[in-house]
Amino acid sequence: MSFTDRLGGLGFGGDYNPEQWPDEVRAEDVRLMTEAGVNLVTVGVFGWARVEPAPDKYDFSYFDAVMDELAAAGVTVDLATMTASPPPWLATEHPEILPVTQSGTVLAPGGRQHYCPSSPVYRDRAAKLVEALATHYQGHPALGFWHVGNEYGCHVAECFCEESARDFRRWLRRRYGDVEALNAAWCTDFWSQRYTSFDQILPPRLAPTYANPAQQLDFKSFSNEALRACFEIEAAILRRVTPDVPVLTNFLAHHKPVDLHSWADRMDIVGLDSYPDPFCPRSHVAAGLAYDLARGAHGGDPWYLVEQAPSAVNWRRRNGVKEPGLMRLWSWQAIAHGADAVLFFQWRQSRGGAEKFHSAMVPHAGPDTRVHREVAALGAELAAVPELAGTRVANDVAVLFDWNSWWALELDSRPSDGLKAVDRALDHYGPLFDLGVGVDVLPPGADLTPYRLVVVPNLYLLTDEHAHGLAGYVSAGGHLLVSFFTSVVDGNDRVHPGGCPGPLREALGLRVEEFRPAAEGEVFLLGDGTADLWREDVRVEGADVLLAFPDGTPAVTRNRFGTGTARYVTTRPDEKIMRAVLAEALAEAGAEPVLRGLPDGVQAAARTGGGAEFLLLLNHTDEARTVDLPHPLHHLLAPGRPEVEQVTLHPRDVAVLARHSRSEVS
Ligand code: GAL
Questions:
Q1: Residue 2 in this model has a pLDDT that exceeds 70
Q2: 298 to each of 20, 228, 255, 387, 659, how far by Cα in Å?
Q3: Is 180 a known active-site residue?
Q4: Omega before 310 cis (within 30°)?
Q5: Which residues form the Beta-galactosidase C-terminal domain (predicted)?
Q6: Given pLDDT bands bounded at 50, 70 and 90, which one contains residue 663?
Q7: 345 Cβ closer than 6 Å to some ligand 1 atom
Q8: Which of 177, 298, 325, 544 is surrounded by the fewest CB atoms within 10 Å?
Q9: 177: exposed, middle or buried (Cβ count in 10 Å: 0-12, 13-18, 19+)
Q10: How confident is residue 666, by pLDDT bands cut at 50, 70 and 90?
Q11: What is the pLDDT of residues 390-411, one digit of tens each?
């Protein structure tokens, strides 16, 4: 049975933590869920202390009741493996599981996620719990998905304890084989760091000054893999005991420690948690980047929005509410970017504990509230378009993003601490979003042949293999746009021979002589606008200069290479210039926006599948907007699904359109 068949359409629901409430409340919960169209809930994320109150003494009776009631109501469960927050007895009996910070502080229990990812004791206890849980719930009618852990690395992404040090050394031995290879990779001849044995190597604990950058970079990779190993231990048990139940975990959006690309193919579905800040007017653009990345990481498959807030969160300095319509708009936005499920944290607002001021689908004030009414209305709306589930998003522009490069770029001792990988990606993704162009966000090793234009906002770290892949893409007729400080170092943070852009030199038709990071707040005149952050002294070697600074230094170049073109941007132009630069590259590549002539602030996205084409229109502004359609389409959210040639979107409004109404498709 496919995921879509199991849910019968799009997934809708949230984290359900009824343990916080007297048993009687569950009857009301289930009734309200049914009324609100909830068909999927995540259960048991913080259940460990309850199901294993003492070592190896399992008591599933509480969750049995919850699972049975949900099954009876037809609600599918994404059952958590409950390993995200170890119970107090485990930390008391085995304090060695506690994580240690870079400066040697042991993190205490009393919050959550207080475990060292390399701890054999933690891993063993988690595995035993998962075995018991999977064996107990296999075949349960409510069990639809396994939710492994919870937001890996959210609080503890790296541990610097002795156990982690041993695990790091084992990882390094596997990676380098012998210590001389490590010395060469880490350039340890500098600063007298030459090792004569792996046993001398430590995690990059707090040191008098910069720790070796290659050591820091390897530690980030190692830490990502240590977390991933925790996931894999659990997933292997689940796949053995319940081979038909899909396995997922929930990634955080824009989460630096966890390389989603290196985990995604181990998931049946990519799950993503997304908490855009309602106070930030462009946060939906950053969210879009995260969604396109989640989809791109799993071959374009539909992904699940596993958590979002119904209204405010409680963990920002100031926690803005989602004004009327915003929760609906941002939920549909996830679907526009390929999500097949829209879930929230959490169902009923906590009475006590750390998250009682985090909004919920059922607020403290009860169901007769704006937030709950909007939740229930969204549930009804999603249930009305089940045919969207399983359809796909296809784009002909790709933006490249890479965790290794992110880690390396943001280490200490760089030319400027102003370069942040996600911001750099947004400097390119934002104008593409505004131009109405759909984008797939992909890792540098992805197959780029389907794309007309590939944008590389910043890949400071680019391996020879990936650079040659990009050059090959261009020479075979592809169009590439690369921004500054790309292809500077190899996988060990060693500068490419000859400097930047290393193996991309021929394709770009230039070389960089000197980086000129801007002073804080410094602005340069450029064309009829400005630029900031960075400049480079570039020597063209065949590339044409499309735009130059007043002193003649190139700002944007274009090189013909093979049958394609490669542009290079040596600075951060202002938004208007960047949009024009990208528009020109798009035009040359023949890449089109989803819909021509869209009014400002309206996003259009297409999903196709099952013989149908859907067009989603999202008004991200606080004013009404009218969109003329190129041909008549059925308005699927309007009563009777009428055919329309024009859509007026109220502030924060959404329209879902299709060429055929459902009856004509089926
Ligand atoms: C996530 C977490 C949830 C909840 C939520 C609040 O990080 O997975 O358990 O804490 O944040 O926004």
A1: no
A2: 35, 16, 17, 21, 28
A3: no
A4: no
A5: 601-657
A6: very low
A7: yes
A8: 177
A9: exposed
A10: very low
A11: 999 999 999 999 999 999 999 9
Residues belonging to the binding site for substrate are 112, 150, 315
Q: Ligand 1 centroid vs 619 CA: distance in angstroms?
A: 28
| Average pLDDT for 214-224 | 98
Index of the ligand 1 atom closest to the CA of residue 150: 8
pTM: 0.98
CA 431 to each of CA 52, 206, 279, 441, 556: distance values in angstroms, whole numbers, following the listed order: 51, 40, 21, 14, 16
Catalytic residue among 52, 151, 225, 234: 151
Task: Give me the helices (H) in 352-434, please.
Answer: 370-383, 403-409, 421-434
Best residue among 305, 345, 359 to mutate for probing ligand 1's pocket (most ligand atoms within 8 Å of CB) is 345
Specify the amino acid at residue 542: G
Nearest CA to 604 out of 664, 654, 529 is that of 654
Per-residue pLDDT of 550-589, as tens digits, reads: 999 999 999 999 999 999 999 999 999 999 999 999 999 9
Distance 393 CA to ligand 1 centre (A): 28
Q: 154: Cβ below 6 Å to ligand 1?
A: yes
Is the pLDDT at 1 greater than 60, yes or no?
no
Q: In this structure, are strands 523-526 and 247-248 parallel, antiparallel, or unpaired? A: unpaired
Residue 659 in this model has a pLDDT that exceeds 90: no
Supply the residue whose CA is at minimum distance from atom 8 of ligand 1: 151
The residue whose CA is least distant from atom 12 of ligand 1 is 313
**Which token pair is 111?**
């919050």
pLDDT tier for residue 660 given thresholds of 50, 70 and 90: confident
Cα-trace Rg, the chain: 26
Residue 588 CA, ligand 1 centroid: distance in Å: 44
Residue 151 designated active-site = yes
Q: Is 151 in the pocket of ligand 1 (CB under 6 A)?
A: yes
CA 250 to ligand 1: nearest atom: 8
Q: What pLDDT, in 10s, does the model give residues 518-560?
A: 999 999 999 999 999 999 999 999 999 999 999 999 999 999 9
Q: What residue owns the CA closest to ligand 1's atom 3?
A: 345
pLDDT (tens digit per residue) in 280-302: 999 999 999 999 999 999 999 99
pLDDT in tens, 426-474: 999 999 999 999 999 999 999 999 999 999 999 999 999 999 999 999 9
Tell me which residue of 388, 356, 362, 365 sits closest to 375, measured CA to CA. Answer: 362
The CB density around residue 629, as the number of other CB atoms within 10 Å, is 17
CA of 91 to the centre of ligand 1 (A): 22
Q: What is the mean pLDDT of residues 197-218?
A: 98
Q: How far is the CA of 500 from the centre of ligand 1 (A)?
A: 41
Q: Looking at the CA of residue 45, tell me the nearest atom of ligand 1.
A: 9
With beta carbons less than 8 A apart as the criterion, state whether 516 and 537 touch.
yes
| Catalytic residue (one of 158, 163, 225, 307) | 307
Asked if 188 contacts 196 with a C-beta cutoff of 8 angstroms, the reply is: no
Tell me the residue ranges of DSSP E strands in 17-93: 40-43, 76-80
Token duo for residue 228? 């991933």
Residue with the smallest CA separation from ligand 1 atom 5 is: 345
